[in-house]
Amino acid sequence: MKIYFAGSITGGRDSAHVYPLLIDALQRHGTVLTEHVGDQALDGAGETVLDAEAIFTRDVDWVDEADVLIAEVTTPSLGVGYEIGRAEAKGKRILALFDRRAERKLSAMVRGNRGVTTVQYASASEAVSAIDAFLTEVSS
Q1: What is the rounded distance in angstroms from the CA atom of residue 4 to the CA atom of residue 89?
Q2: Can you say whether residue 16 is alpha, beta or left, with left for phi > 0 and alpha for psi between -120 and 50 degrees?
Q3: Measured between alpha carbons, how far is 35 from 88 in angstroms, rounded to an integer?
Q4: Inter-residue contact 52 to 24 (CB < 8 Å)
Q5: Rounded to two decimals, what is the model's pTM?
Q6: For residue range 40-92, what is the model confidence (pLDDT) as tens digits?
Q7: 19 and 77 in contact (C-beta within 8 Å)?
Q8: Which of 13, 23, 101, 137 is spaced 20 to 30 Å from 41 by Cα?
Q9: Which of helix, strand or coil describes residue 75?
Q10: Predicted pLDDT at 45
Q11: Neighbouring C-beta atoms of residue 139, cutoff 10 Å
Q12: How many distinct helices (H) and strands (E) make up the chain?
């Protein structure tokens, strides 16, 4: 299974501490095309090796190639929203994870979308359990 993991980079790295744990869980189910999102050296400046057009082209190709998209959506990100929309348009299964301890609310555009499975979590272990359950269901 090919998995696209979406998480905020230039929109803010407030949730980045949980990304490596989520990516580790995803790797037990398949190939994570975007494991670089969990790189703790990345900051809000984003990737510096590629220009914006190259990042866009690469990421759109990866969304199209992926079997599923898993997004950590606690930190709002225009890019993650775009990736979710593209994955939905391509008929991909989508899981959105939101830390319910956050001071902000999850956008109704994600919460109200029946094409997105949304799980609110209060610990990394809850998020990992949600990933395992979602990907087990998708695989069966």
Answers
A1: 15
A2: alpha
A3: 21
A4: no
A5: 0.93
A6: 766 666 667 788 899 999 999 999 999 999 999 999 999 999 999 999 999 99
A7: no
A8: 101
A9: coil
A10: 64
A11: 11
A12: 5, 5
Q: How far is CA 99 from CA 7, 14, 86, in A?
A: 13, 11, 23
In a 3-state reduction of DSSP, which class is residue 33? coil
Residues 131, 19 contacting (CB under 8 angstroms)? no
Q: For 83, phi and psi rounded to 5 degrees?
A: -60, -40
Q: Give me the helices (H) in the chain, please.
A: 19-27, 52-65, 78-89, 108-111, 124-139
Query: Which has more pLDDT, 35 or 97?
Result: 97
Q: What's the CA gap between 121 and 79, in Å, rounded?
A: 22
Q: What is the pLDDT of residues 26-44, one digit of tens each?
A: 999 999 999 888 777 666 6
Structure tokens at 137: 């269901």
| Residue tagged 């914006």 (tokens) | 52
For residue 7, the one-letter residue type is G
* Domain range 2-139, its CATH number among 3.40.50.300, 3.40.50.11310, 3.40.50.450, 2.40.10.10: 3.40.50.450
The one-letter amino acid code at 124 reads A
